Amino acid sequence: MADFNFNDGLLHKVFLAGVGALATTVEKSQEIVDDLVKKGEITVEQGKALNAELKHKAEEAKAEETKPASDEKKD
């Protein structure tokens, strides 16, 4: 296999790209839920619950994404 030199700068940029993608996904999901509420396809309470669930899942994914990065630095 090819010998790749992954320095901390590259790993940091990849991590930030992942966080940015996650944030963009959460924002877009919230926009979709808000549109559904406006159209009356779901109730306001259902929209609030769905937004809260999306935020919770995003926080879990972010925490999971940070775990390997911190584990690598310990080694």
From TrEMBL:
Residues 55-75 are annotated as: Disordered. It comes from the Bacteria. This is Poly(Hydroxyalcanoate) granule associated protein (Phasin). It comes from Bifidobacterium thermacidophilum.
